[in-house]
Amino acid sequence: MHIFFFFFSLILCFVLISSSQTLEDDKKALLDFLSHLTSSHLLWNQSSPVCHRWTGVTCNANRDRVVSVRLPAVGFNGLIPPFTISRLSSLKVLSLRKNHFTGDFPSDFINLSNLTHLYLQHNRFSGPLPSILSELKNLKVLDLSNNGFNGSIPASLSGLTSLRVLNLANNSFSGEIPHLDLPKLSQVNLSNNKLVGTKPISLQRFQSSAFSGNNTTDRQKKQHHKLPFGLNQVAFLLILAAACVLGVFGFSFIMITCCLRKKCFPGKLRKRDSSSPPPGNWTSRDDNTEEGGKIIYFGGRNHSFDLDDLLTSSAEVLGKGAFGATYMVTMEDMSTVVVKRLKEVVVGRREFEMQMEIIGMIRHENVAELKAYYYSKDDKLAVYSYYSQGSLFEMLHGNKGRYHRVPLDWDARLKIATGAVRGLAKIHEGNNGKLIHGNIKSSNIFLDSQCYGCIGDLGLTAIMRSLPQTTCLTSGYHAPEITDTRRSTQFSDVYSFGVVLLELLTGKSPVSPAGLAPKAATTTQGENMDLASWIRNVVANEWTGEVFDMEILSQSGGFEEEMVEMLQIGLACVALKQQDRPHISQVLKLIEDIRST
Ligand SMILES: *[C@@H]1O[C@H](CO)[C@@H](O)[C@H](O)[C@H]1NC(C)=O
Ligand SMILES: *[C@@H]1O[C@H](CO)[C@@H](O)[C@H](O)[C@H]1NC(C)=O
Ligand SMILES: *[C@@H]1O[C@H](CO)[C@@H](O)[C@H](O)[C@H]1NC(C)=O
Ligand SMILES: *[C@@H]1O[C@H](CO)[C@@H](O)[C@H](O)[C@H]1NC(C)=O
Ligand SMILES: *[C@@H]1O[C@H](CO)[C@@H](O)[C@H](O)[C@H]1NC(C)=O
Ligand SMILES: *[C@@H]1O[C@H](CO)[C@@H](O)[C@H](O)[C@H]1NC(C)=O
Ligand SMILES: *[C@@H]1O[C@H](CO)[C@@H](O)[C@H](O)[C@H]1NC(C)=O
Ligand SMILES: CC(=O)N[C@H]1CO[C@H](CO)[C@@H](O)[C@@H]1O
């Protein structure tokens, strides 16, 4: 009996020890890794939580294991300390690209059985690839380009059955290219090696540029193609080098949220097929290094992108506004950020940086986060978080944007207003209570994962050529005094926010007043009237019930009192005289009280 128990507990212990690797073990492995490397500026604070604070480290949803380590361009050199990184047994993504690591391919990495993405490009690795590499059965992306690997490409790579991307360019691989039977492979680059012979049939489907700079022959003809190393890229590498030398200033956040985020309207909100063309020239045109910029990150938790990423990742144009073009940029880890390429910046570098630093300080769940910025003579970029559910404008007025129209019930609208007013109240506290948004409108309000409103586009009006031209497109949001002063204030922000509230209630767009015509026709000014004036008129004539969006009236019986309350708040915000408007903190309290009373 005793012996039985003894063995039983021994087995139990063994099972527990072998299967319960913890975050502590992961932390230890990472600290071991770092302790062997003297070369970087990276500091992981032992007493701060790994999952929240450590640069480049991301955990799983339970926050009990490390799943991604991304430390691109942090100045590491020497050998990768063996048996450190490879102890992170849950690791899925490892990026150590653009460092100066030397030595052989770290063969202990084959213990990382869950690894899906391995980025070791732009280091100084050498020697042959171990054929045992094929043990990494889950590997989808393998980028070993721009190193000094030599020897032949192991035929065992055929065992990497999940592989989608293989980049071995700019190494010294020799011999013939093996037959690689990888049906999922969609991108290959073996250019600039010392390979000979014919392309295997299994790789015939890839363009010849993937094999350029070698002595391989096509079935038809020899390839002699090599792209010139353009000036743009030279400038670009200089900028990057400068950024490295200056040290890693701060770090950005991984945007895994877009994957984790639930949709507010499952099944209903469909993304349109994105048929927008990619942006034209993403490459920095800045070849004056003195004026050349560096990218500044806020946050310091994780950095999943560098400037290189922003300028080379696949980008999609989201829109072209008064401040310049807005792009949605998807990173190599499939996270997404919004990049604004600002035109007509009127302030100089110092003022630009000061303004960005002020905005970067604003951290609130209802304010779209400024993740990074970049200033050079020719390019000014602001990088914000991306909200996958689109803007309130798209939600309300549908079909014109990237999303199809979805009915929004009263609860949803109340939540959006609540989030947005919290965000704006936080913004007005910024810069010692002096910060102004200057461009509040429904297309700058986004929905977060909990479907609360979030304020986007913060901080741009202050650095741009006065206000965007007051065209009929935006004037619906502008306080009357702005027409004369051309300067935004916190009062005018409250006015614009009031217009958004009215927009939520009526479902009518302030930017297309023609839609008001049928009901407004009885008034004197007819269809030239903006949304706020129209509602003032209707309410003055005691037709209150008439202003509400049919969609919320039909959906939510019994909430009319709440709507009337919101209407009164909205009307107070759009008071013609600025001193009659409430402070945003009062608006916040009023809106939060709608439900809680
Ligand atoms: C490390 O983190 C702790 C807690 O977050 C903090 O109190 C401490 O100042 C940090 N130490 C350094 C050297 O940054
Ligand atoms: C690897 O991933 C699988 C599922 O994706 C998981 O069940 C397993 O526990 C992971 N391995 C480790 C060592 O975390
Ligand atoms: C893999 O990990 C085990 C311990 O879990 C270790 O004994 C072994 O040497 C490692 N393999 C390699 C190739 O590093
Ligand atoms: C690979 O490079 C190393 C030096 O880095 C050299 O000793 C070795 O002979 C080379 N192997 C082949 C196959 O070229
Ligand atoms: C190979 O190196 C050249 C010149 O350094 C560079 O232009 C090219 O982009 C590199 N190829 C890859 C696939 O990284
Ligand atoms: C290319 O390879 C062929 C053999 O496959 C060899 O005859 C030829 O000399 C090589 N050319 C160069 C430029 O290396
Ligand atoms: C492969 O990389 C070379 C530069 O090294 C580039 O010119 C070529 O376009 C790339 N081909 C593919 C298919 O990516
Ligand atoms: C066809 C071709 O470009 N072959 C080149 C392959 O790479 C070797 C080594 O870099 C060159 O010598 C060949 O000219």
TrEMBL record:
<keyword id="KW-0677">Repeat</keyword>
<feature type="signal peptide">
    <location>
        <begin position="1"/>
        <end position="20"/>
    </location>
</feature>
<dbReference type="InterPro" id="IPR017441">
    <property type="entry name" value="Protein_kinase_ATP_BS"/>
</dbReference>
<feature type="binding site">
    <location>
        <position position="340"/>
    </location>
    <ligand>
        <name>ATP</name>
    </ligand>
</feature>
<dbReference type="InterPro" id="IPR025875">
    <property type="entry name" value="Leu-rich_rpt_4"/>
</dbReference>
<keyword id="KW-0433">Leucine-rich repeat</keyword>
<keyword id="KW-0472">Membrane</keyword>
<dbReference type="Pfam" id="PF08263">
    <property type="entry name" value="LRRNT_2"/>
</dbReference>
<dbReference type="InterPro" id="IPR001611">
    <property type="entry name" value="Leu-rich_rpt"/>
</dbReference>
<dbReference type="InterPro" id="IPR003591">
    <property type="entry name" value="Leu-rich_rpt_typical-subtyp"/>
</dbReference>
<dbReference type="Pfam" id="PF13855">
    <property type="entry name" value="LRR_8"/>
</dbReference>
<protein>
    <submittedName>
        <fullName>Inactive receptor-like protein kinase At1g64210</fullName>
    </submittedName>
</protein>
<keyword id="KW-1133">Transmembrane helix</keyword>
<keyword id="KW-0067">ATP-binding</keyword>
<dbReference type="InterPro" id="IPR013210">
    <property type="entry name" value="LRR_N_plant-typ"/>
</dbReference>
<feature type="region of interest" description="Disordered">
    <location>
        <begin position="269"/>
        <end position="288"/>
    </location>
</feature>
<feature type="transmembrane region" description="Helical">
    <location>
        <begin position="234"/>
        <end position="260"/>
    </location>
</feature>
<dbReference type="InterPro" id="IPR032675">
    <property type="entry name" value="LRR_dom_sf"/>
</dbReference>
<dbReference type="InterPro" id="IPR050994">
    <property type="entry name" value="At_inactive_RLKs"/>
</dbReference>
<dbReference type="InterPro" id="IPR011009">
    <property type="entry name" value="Kinase-like_dom_sf"/>
</dbReference>
<keyword id="KW-0732">Signal</keyword>
<feature type="domain" description="Protein kinase">
    <location>
        <begin position="312"/>
        <end position="594"/>
    </location>
</feature>
<keyword id="KW-0812">Transmembrane</keyword>
<keyword id="KW-0547">Nucleotide-binding</keyword>
<dbReference type="InterPro" id="IPR000719">
    <property type="entry name" value="Prot_kinase_dom"/>
</dbReference>
<dbReference type="Pfam" id="PF00069">
    <property type="entry name" value="Pkinase"/>
</dbReference>
<dbReference type="Pfam" id="PF12799">
    <property type="entry name" value="LRR_4"/>
</dbReference>
